[in-house]
Amino acid sequence: MTRLDVKEVTVRFGGVTAVDQATISAEGGQVTALIGPNGAGKTTLFNVVTGLQKPTGGRVFLDGKDITHTPTHRRARHGIARTFQRLEAFGSLTVEENIRVAADAVRAKNAKPAQVTRGLIKRIGLERYADARADAVPTGVARLVELARALAIDPELLLLDEPSSGLSEAETESFGELLRDLASQGRAVLIVEHDMGLIMRVSDVIHVLDRGRLIASGTPAEVQADPLVRKAYLGEEDEPEDDEGPEDDDGHTLVLSAADPDDDTAAVPPTRPTRPTQPTPPASPIPPLPKGPGPQSGEPASGGWF
Predict the structure, then answer these.
(1) CA distances (Å), origin 186, targets 118, 152, 160, 215, 219
(2) Given Cys at both, which of 32, 92, 221, 242 links 26, Cβ 3.0 to 4.6 Å?
(3) Looking at the domain 1-79+155-237+284-301, which fold is it?
(4) Which residues pair with 213 in a beta bridge?
(5) pLDDT tens-digit readout, 153-171
């Protein structure tokens, strides 16, 4: 079942178009990823879905109902929950109190909010931190507190903005299993994430934004092989038909140095290689998408990925 439909959404800030006629969807029972470079419009699109940002154009539908102009608090009651790229925990409250606030807010769903809170603490693995202030726990733990608080309203659509930031490798592995479990219960999980290993493991569908426009949608394998995605992430151009590459005036093959995907400077000019004693093995036809460093506070205006 399609939980979320975002149709041709555009967001402009003055003369800047942050999101340009983006159309995405998220199905119940699936993990859907939204990826793209810094400044691609991912968080802005999240804000449109949750009602924090009014779109310049386009519509948003939840379970087939138009919620484009529905206030944020009513969207939460209709089953939309999210976490934020910047930590938004209530620092002066304990971990348990942070989760209980959300459980109390939807008593129509949670007849026993204290029981719901304790259940989520156990499920997410927060028992040792339950009585600690939220501003005193490690960043990775605070991310899990936000997730538990979002789950406390029992959402049908769960939006997660870079939730694995601050988690260790082992914690990220467990977190991926938790995402699959949450989706298996019928929820639609929509995730923005910089960890491409996690995205490729847990996602059923991936949407790719670049400069506010949707450039690809499909399975992880389809997206990874898409030439537009490869160009956006790796700076790749179409490969020449001549496998040997261009030659100089003396008939020697020239090799183009690969551009650093994080470097915005022009490509390195051709150089004449020394002749190897052994044949050079061919490069993998589909290199993996790069894993960029996750920002600690918001998306920078330029540079890096995610």
Answers:
(1) 22, 16, 16, 28, 19
(2) 32
(3) Rossmann fold (3.40.50)
(4) 210
(5) 999 999 999 999 888 898 8
pLDDT in tens, 101-116: 999 887 666 668 999 9
Mean pLDDT of the chain: 81
The CA-based angle 10-13-16, given to 5 degrees, is 85
Phi-psi region of 241 (alpha: psi -120 to 50; beta: other; left: phi over 0): alpha
Q: How far apart are CA 85 and CA 299, in angstroms?
A: 8
Q: Are strands 205-210 and 188-192 parallel, antiparallel or unpaired?
A: unpaired
Residues facing 57 on adjacent strands:
10
Q: Check: CB of residue 304 under 8 Å from CB of residue 292.
A: yes
CA distance 234 to 255: 18
From 205, 228, 227, 232, select the one nearest 218 (Cα to Cα): 205
If you average pLDDT over residues 34-56, what whole number do you get? 94
**Residue extents of the structural domains in the chain:** 1-79+155-237+284-301, 88-154
- Max mean pLDDT among 87-91, 94-98, 140-144, 285-289 falls in 94-98
